[in-house]
Amino acid sequence: MYVILAYDVAVERNGRVLKTARRYLTWVQNSLLEGELSPAQLRRLQHELERAIDPQSDSVQIYVLPQASAARRVCLGVVKNEPSQFV
Amino acid sequence: MYVILAYDVAVERNGRVLKTARRYLTWVQNSLLEGELSPAQLRRLQHELERAIDPQSDSVQIYVLPQASAARRVCLGVVKNEPSQFV
């Protein structure tokens, strides 16, 4: 599965959420990561993120695609980091 | 086409980029918008965003899916705004 993750969390939790997500996914730009995950890895990532955020005020959106090619990607401006998956 | 847009732009351009994107897409959380667009609408949005950003330092990632159902969405924490597309 290909995963796109975007987070909107309070500054004091930003570091922990980013550190957690980076153990599974590739950083693309601020608050956005991507990568190939197995269902088990996704479940573990979700579980760790749920412990890292404040569910009353933080928000994490995870988009799960069957494979990277299910989405066409358009980049405007500078590419801060290029995950290898997209052709 | 279903579009997911994430932006990472300097603070001074944040307002203009958000205002531009909101004319086409639904705000989901900070720096993230989604919505159904025709190819012509996507081209216009791209063109307007290219005029709003600094291509040397700002970054906009646009993921284009054939339809919303091409991605499964997982939300952790609070849902700041719920685009109607995802079941």
Automatic annotation (TrEMBL), chains A, B:
Similarity comment: Belongs to the CRISPR-associated endoribonuclease Cas2 protein family.
**Keyword terms:** Antiviral defense, Endonuclease, Hydrolase, Magnesium, Metal-binding, Nuclease
Cofactor(s) needed for function: Mg(2+)
- Role: CRISPR (clustered regularly interspaced short palindromic repeat), is an adaptive immune system that provides protection against mobile genetic elements (viruses, transposable elements and conjugative plasmids). CRISPR clusters contain sequences complementary to antecedent mobile elements and target invading nucleic acids. CRISPR clusters are transcribed and processed into CRISPR RNA (crRNA). Functions as a ssRNA-specific endoribonuclease. Involved in the integration of spacer DNA into the CRISPR cassette.
Q: Which residues form a coiled coil?
A: none
Q: Which InterPro entries match?
A: CRISPR_associated_Cas2 (IPR021127), Virulence_VapD/CRISPR_Cas2 (IPR019199)
Q: What is this protein called?
A: CRISPR-associated endoribonuclease Cas2
Binding, Mg(2+): D8
Q: Example GO biological process term?
A: defense response to virus
Question: Sorted alphabetically, which NCBIfam families does this protein's record hold?
Answer: cas2
- How is the subunit organization of this protein annotated in UniProt? Homodimer, forms a heterotetramer with a Cas1 homodimer.
* Enzyme class at the top of the EC tree: hydrolase
Q: From the UniProt record, which GO molecular function terms apply?
A: hydrolase activity; metal ion binding; RNA endonuclease activity
Report the domain of life of the source organism: Bacteria
EC number(s) on file: 3.1.-.-
| HAMAP family, sorted | Cas2
